[in-house]
């Protein structure tokens, strides 16, 4: 009984290794075929052009009004 179990376990391990190696080999073959079929661009690494810095004049020209604090407003509204 134990001999049968060891035989099945070893057989399963060998089949698993064979399937793993076959699938790995198949994956590499497919990657090689796909890699050769695509044409690579002449300059794959191009420098990104930097956009010129934009100045927003409407923000510079805006007049900002400071809002009063809520606590200060509540103190002025209370009848004390």
Quick rundown:
This protein is mainly α.
* Basic shape: elongated
- State the helicity in percent bands: 55-70%
Ends apart, CA distance between termini:
97 Å
Number of helices: 3
SSE string:
HHH
Mean pLDDT: 79
Number of strands: 0
Which ranges are low-confidence, i.e. pLDDT below 50, for 5 or more consecutive residues? none
Measured on Cα atoms, how large is the radius of gyration? 37 Å
Q: How many strands, what sense, and barrel or not for the largest sheet?
A: none
Structural class: mainly alpha
- Taken as a percent bin, the fraction of beta residues is under 5%
How would you characterize this protein structure?
By secondary structure, this protein is mainly alpha-helical. The N and C termini lie far apart (97 Å). It contains 3 helices and no strands.
Annotation keywords:
mainly alpha; 80 residues
Topology:
Elements (H helix, E strand, L loop, with lengths): L1 H36 L19 H4 L9 H8 L3
